[in-house]
């Protein structure tokens, strides 16, 4: 049936559109409050542990929330991070609610510039990975407002396959019932 064949590309396009929508949903930007929910930007939080529960993608943001009388935020190089030195910093913030955009893939380093704080562990290394990259084995973290990308992707993929199959079936039925539309 010629009409059915003509509709196959339409079904394929519908399925493709659903896949595109799912990819965009999976890539939706997230904002993470550093240290939350158990801590913030403070002297107690284990940031190496905290980042393990997250996967950061380009477009995400991190927010440093703290009292500006007690702390600040300094973005530094890897060397500055290792040495706890803000001397050659990349940028510095001290509003108490500093939002930093993670625009590109790469590693970002932040520390508190107040004397002794970085040495006490108030430093964080943030690895920003390409969208679609799966998180590491430790990444199944608790209490993130955003669902883990791998989980949402798996759920989304299953839903898309079902939706695409349903769309294709509906299109075929439409041809049988109304051959001349
Ligand atoms: C950042 O570096 C500049 C020099 O480039 C320096 O003047 C400034 O004090 C540094 N900021 C902090 C918070 O250390
Ligand atoms: Cu501090």
- Residues in helices, as a percent range: 25-40%
Give the count of helical stretches. 4
Number of domains: 2
| DSSP strand count | 7
Rounded average pLDDT: 76
CATH architecture annotation of the largest domain: Sandwich
CATH class of the largest domain: Mainly Beta
Strand content: 15-25%
End-to-end Cα distance, whole Å, is: 14 Å
Q: What composes the largest sheet?
A: 4 strands, antiparallel
At the fourth CATH level, what is the homologous superfamily of the largest domain? Cupredoxins -  blue copper proteins
Q: How are the strands of the largest sheet arranged?
A: 4-3-6-7
Query: Which ligands are bound?
Result: 2-acetamido-2-deoxy-beta-D-glucopyranose, copper (II) ion
Radius of gyration: 23 Å
Describe what this molecule looks like in 3D.
It comes from Panicum hallii var. hallii. Pfam families: Cu_bind_like (PF02298). By secondary structure, the protein is an alpha+beta fold. It has 2 domains: 1-28 and 147-181; 30-145, Cupredoxins -  blue copper proteins (Immunoglobulin-like). Helix content is 36%, strand content 18%. The chain is built from 4 helices and 7 strands. The protein has a 4-stranded antiparallel beta sheet. A 3-stranded mixed beta sheet has the order 1-2-5, with no helix packed on it. Strand 1, helix 2 and strand 2 form a beta-alpha-beta unit. The chain is globular, with a radius of gyration of 23 Å. Residues 13-22 and 137-181 have low confidence and may be disordered. The structure holds 2-acetamido-2-deoxy-beta-D-glucopyranose and copper (II) ion. Residues 72, 74, 86, 89, 92, 113 line the site of 2-acetamido-2-deoxy-beta-D-glucopyranose.
């Amino acid at each position: 049936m010629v009409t059915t064949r003509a509709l196959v590309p339409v079904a394929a396009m519908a399925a493709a559109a659903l896949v595109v929508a799912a990819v965009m949903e999976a890539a939706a930007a997230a904002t993470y409050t550093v240290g939350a929910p158990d801590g913030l930007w403070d002297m107690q939080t284990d940031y190496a542990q905290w980042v393990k529960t997250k996967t950061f993608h380009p477009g995400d943001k991190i927010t440093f929330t703290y009292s500006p009388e007690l702390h600040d935020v300094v973005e530094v190089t890897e060397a500055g991070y290792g040495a706890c030195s803000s001397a050659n910093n990349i940028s510095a913030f001290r509003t108490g609610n500093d939002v930093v955009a993670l625009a590109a893939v790469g590693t970002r380093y932040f520390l508190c510039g107040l004397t002794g704080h970085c040495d006490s562990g108030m430093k964080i290394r943030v690895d920003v990975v390409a969208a679609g990259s799966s998180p590491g084995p430790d990444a199944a973290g608790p209490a993130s407002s955003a669902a883990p990308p791998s989980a949402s992707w798996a759920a989304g993929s299953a839903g898309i396959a079902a939706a695409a199959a349903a769309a294709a079936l509906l299109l075929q039925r439409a041809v049988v019932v109304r051959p001349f539309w």
